[in-house]
Amino acid sequence: MIKRVEDLTIDEAKEELASLANRIAELDVAYYRDDAPLLDDAEYDALKRRNQEIEQNFPALIRADSPSLRVGAPIATDFNKITHTVPMLSLEDIFSDEDVVAFLAKVKRFLGMADSEDIEVVAEPKIDGLSFSAVYRNGQLVSGATRGDGTTGEDITANLKTIRQVPLSLRKGTDLFETVPDLIDIRGEVYMAKEDFFELNRMQEEAHKKIFANPRNAAAGSLRQLDAQVTAERRLSIFAYACGEADPITWKTHYDYLQQLKKWGFPVNPEIKLCHNIKEMLDFFHQITEKRSSLPYDIDGVVYKVNSLELQNRLGFIARSPRWAIAHKFPAEQAITRLNHIRIQVGRTGALTPVADLEPVNVGGVIVRHATLHNADEIMRKDIREGDMVVVQRAGDVIPQIVRVLPEKRLPDSKPYVFPSVCPVCGSRAVREGDDAVIYCTGELFCPAQQIEALKHFVSKDALDIEGLGNKNIELFFEKGWIKNAVDLMNFKANHELELIGLDGWGLKSAHNLFEAIEKARQGVPLERFIYAIGIREVGEATARLLAHNYHSWQAFRSAMESAEAYEQLTHIEGIGPVMAQFITDFFQEEHNRILLTQLENIMKIKDYVAPIQKQGPLFGKHIVFTGTLETMTRPEAKAKAQAAGAKVISSVSAKTDYVVVGANPGSKQTEAEKLNIMQISEKEFKQMLDV
Ligand code: IVH
What we know:
With 692 residues, the protein is of the alpha+beta class. Helices cover 38% and strands 20% of the residues.
């Protein structure tokens, strides 16, 4: 068995979260942006689920770039982009009845409700398709978009319009008083019914065209067509279930909104039920589980949503998912197959990750070819050997990991797996750090695999985003000895222009395009992207943004990080824990990092941080500290509200603090505020400042 989450040490948990974050980010790009999944959905879901389980047990270790905080991946370049006025969020996944109980308890705690009080929750089947947003102005459909990365999606207006179930204009009700809003962004799921999926594959087969693995992939492939004509030929369906921006909002509950959607002409899932207590919620889940195979469309679980919009507003969001909704996913499915080979991957930070190459097997409708083995301990614990028959499991609808081996089917000459003691790429010693479960290559920047991974990271979409420099090219230029690090890359044109033009497959035009892309990055890269690009261990996009937000300029950030107070300062930033702070300070203490950074500073421009446009109320950019008990809201609620208003919530009072919000029975923080002469405000004043 894999190590139970409860049995993980802090360090093991930390490392596993780090490797999960890296891996999942990579898989997301392949899946969401490139439509070319690297793993089966089942395998993918298993990774996400494991990540979530660890996070639940070690909330302090949740990484700023945790996959649980992410929605999808950056969009492809070929569609126009549409920015969602209200972000399209994702949902946290849970897998058991106990998790549902915990969810509801947490909601009540956040709202300051008694456990015995009931709360209305809408339970909906979780449709396994892809989400859409459809904006109507004065009742007319004006644009349609995919979720994309949650902030920006692809413009699929033309495609969406080909789906018959999408109303081109909102139907006005018979009631005289019933009108349509001036503006509404209606959201839901595009899916392909099972029957239509089988029919499509039958036709594809006849025409010797691509066969789709499952209805979800077929729906995605059909909707994201540059030629909307193709979309029109596919039979797609929709269910509407959510709302982005809307003006005016005339409904008070989610359930009422769903009724309104029906009146406007939208299909709303007929199974949806308004539940009044936990029993009704769980009953719904179990009934839907029974019904699942007979439904005409694929579902992968149930979504629970707090019914009252007022409560939804109070609950707000955590990172990228609402606190007022959650996805209860169906349990895992299993199958037996042979493990052909154990492969070791070397990551950017040198982590050696074992991967099982499997004899392809169908697990609940999805072909599974690989499974992660996490680390050497996991292989040992389960005594997994090459050639073994293994039980593969995927949780959720499309997913996998190795549950156990079947010793009775073991080949007589099988030998226990020996984890390599040297890096398979550079031959350096492979070691554990402390009681860390992960084994690292000690080659650091001398290990070609690590150098290459660092370069890939540096130019990747969310970092410098240098187009025309895919993984293959980086590997090629690296092998030729043209680029070993980021500085070589920035100087690529000066040193290797002629060689590149002479290279097979390259010509004047393509070389020119690449040099131009590099030049663009040299001319100016946003601070948050640069911080992300330099590849500090654990620092993902969100942390990089947080750091950029706090320091504004590269000079300010670098000098702070090289000062004696760096660690101290970092731990005062809400969202940066001690582990992360240590990795960041360590990074800036490394001589070779400093040399590289100085060289980069000299050849490229790092642009100051520009905060996203936000309504700038009186709390915007202020450092605030809470002390004592608040009366009308709980502490997490207050903190979330303050952050949403652009304030930085700090855990302790210092000279930099702007306001201390003082509740009943304040603690030592108030004394401290008095000493430092920091402005103290009441809960009421705080709320007034929020409202502006
Ligand atoms: S509500 C803020 N309701 O699941 C809440 N999502 O994991 C937004 N999905 O991106 C989502 N059925 O693509 C919601 N009845 C349902 C859903 C549903 C399927 C998908 C949707 C979303 C994903 C989140």
